[in-house]
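To assess whether the prediction recovers the assembly geometry, we first specified each molecular entity separately, as shown.
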Amino acid sequence: MGNVNRWALLSLLLPAALFARPVSYADSWTLTQKNDSFGHILSLHYSPTARYSLGVFAQSKPDLNKAWYIATCNALLKRWNLPSAQANIFFLSGVGASRNKGRMGGAAQCGLSLDYETRRILIAYENRAVYAGHVEKSFHHIGRVGFSPYVAAFDALQPWILLQYEYKNSKSVLTPLLRLYRNNVLVELGLSTKGTLLFNWIVTF
Amino acid sequence: MRLAFIMLFLSATLCAEEIFVEVKGVVCSFCAQGISETVKKRAEVETVSVDIDTGDVTIVTKTGQTLDDTTVEKLIEDAGYEVSSIRRL
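The predicted structure of the complete assembly is given in tokenized form:
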């Protein structure tokens, strides 16, 4: 099995990271996968406390030949717990290695993630600076706004309608998407204005 | 009189306790799961339920057991949230 096929198989079996909460509750794991026009992201992180997380992160280009692999350390810088809302500022960081058709190099990334969420409204922004040798040098911005038509119980399905805007290396993508929450699982499905499919999922446990 | 005192003593020691906690910052099912899983780790806890719509958390303890307010506040903080108020039944 070639490198490309191995990566494709891995991306189906494992999980990603943008817009998964970078830190979860104490002693919990978060598994994420993201697929869109910028490529594929897989991530797994463990939160020893609700203040920081440690994990692994892998991202590939859409053609799967170029990728980088990062050991991550994310921190909750500030949280506002309000009666019917929550707002957060997270710091994202990591170092690792990059791969370009078998050629290896170093890699590092850092960024900020900000969100404000009520039970019916979501506003979020995230940026990430990436240096991955011969594979990637970029500053990635993602903004999201959306709403939920109703609030569901913990064990019931809650839908969200979101609009996502991504900008990286002079390329911008606008994607309307549907987010579905139920228990500890979140799934997102969208189609960008350029016709590319978005499929993300997150599980916490 | 003695019987009433014994009944009161037994009800306090042999009954489960219901603790109603008003929590700030609860907005989604991931929040509910975080609180539920964190509180359930305590041996004294029988059940936990989270109302996402109101942010109310109901903790039912095992028979004859309790959780003091400081412990409840610490558990909610470990999950990443803040306690507004605690009531007991």
